[in-house]
Amino acid sequence: MTLMKPLFGAAAALALTAGAALAEPALIFDLGGKFDKSFNEAAHTGAQRWAEETGGSYREVEMQSEAQREQALRRFAEAGLNPIVMTGFAFGNVLSEVAPDYPDTKFAIIDAVVDEPNVRSVIFKEHEGSYLVGMLAAMASESGTVGFIGGMDIPLIRKFACGYAQGVKAVNTDAEIVANMTGTTPAAWNDPVKGSELAQAQISQGADVIYAAAGGTGVGVLQTAADEGILSIGVDSNQNYLHPGQVLTSMVKRVDNAVEDAMAQGEDLETGIVVMGVDNEGVGYAMDEFNAELVTDEMQARVEEAKAAIASGDLEVHDYTETDSCPALSF
User: Fold this and answer.
1) SS3 content of the chain, % helix, strand, coil (to 5)
2) Cis peptide leading into 192, omega within 30 of 0?
3) Structural domain boundaries of the chain?
4) What would be the CATH architecture of the domain defined by 126-252+296-323?
5) 4-124+256-278 adopts what CATH topology?
6) pLDDT tens column, 14-38
């Protein structure tokens, strides 16, 4: 049985004194929790897979507030845990301050770049995977209007939206794309009620396929889409199973692989920047028994052709974060 020890409380206090010499890895989840059915849960899946395959154990903690970020990092480092893996760009500034204080500890951060010698920065080409699901959205849409609902309005999520819009336009240049963000604070990642409201609004504007890139908020988007009889697109984890036959596909972001690989390397973790895109299966789209009847062979063949072109470099998807602009979508 996998042993997962919480950071805070009596067990943590004991571990900090009696078990400091143990070089277990650690995983810190971002706001929204490890069972958000999306980004954090993908990280959890990777850690669990590592534990099951190796028989190893790891520590974990779920953030409840912004103030806990530095506290969690320092406590794990003081406890001798190595490497310490964290999910989310929001750890970036804190890790930049903490990492130099623990030069013998390796850190891995997902979705941000921290230029320190003991840090591995894992970033993804989300725009590439979003392009592929955008193509599917356009091919599946009967109204010619599709939607995008993001979580926190940050360049990273605009990167998802921009790639999606480019994929949609590649199939249907006349398509309408309705885009909304849930909010401007971290609470936007875990507000399924607001996600549902935004989905309802987009449906009223004619959207019959909605892509949610919003963490736990997306659960509300997918639920409302299913209730209203339209299609949705999941994100990060494969969410096709949540509403069989009504989730067109999911843009899978292999956060699970990134976490598993970091834990597998342990104290010998190779630092620097790791980029995961279509060419190395870092992002893609999900096909399984839950959406097989929604995606025809012709649809999949067209997407696979684009996927190969992206991987080879023949097709370049514009990255919003490089220019702070999107030729296919106005924000």
Assistant:
1) 45, 20, 35
2) no
3) 4-124+256-278, 126-252+296-323
4) 3-Layer(aba) Sandwich (3.40)
5) Rossmann fold (3.40.50)
6) 333 333 344 899 999 998 889 988 8
Tokens 């339209």 belong to 230
**Residue 288 corresponds to which tokens in the numbers above?**
């399984």
pLDDT at 32: 83
Work out the pLDDT band at 313, boundaries 50, 70, 90: very high
Q: How far is 14 from 11, CA to CA, in rounded Å?
A: 5
Could you give the C-alpha distances from 214 to 35, 112, 130, 149, 161, in angstroms and in order? Answer: 14, 17, 13, 7, 11
Q: Are the C-beta atoms of residues 87 and 111 closer than 8 Å to each other?
A: yes
Mean pLDDT, the chain, integer: 92
CA 104, CA 101: separation in Å to the nearest integer?
A: 9
**Tens-place pLDDT, residues 233-272:** 999 999 999 999 999 999 999 999 999 999 999 999 999 9
How many other C-beta atoms lie within 10 A of the C-beta of residue 13?
10
Considering only CA atoms, give the Rg of the chain.
20
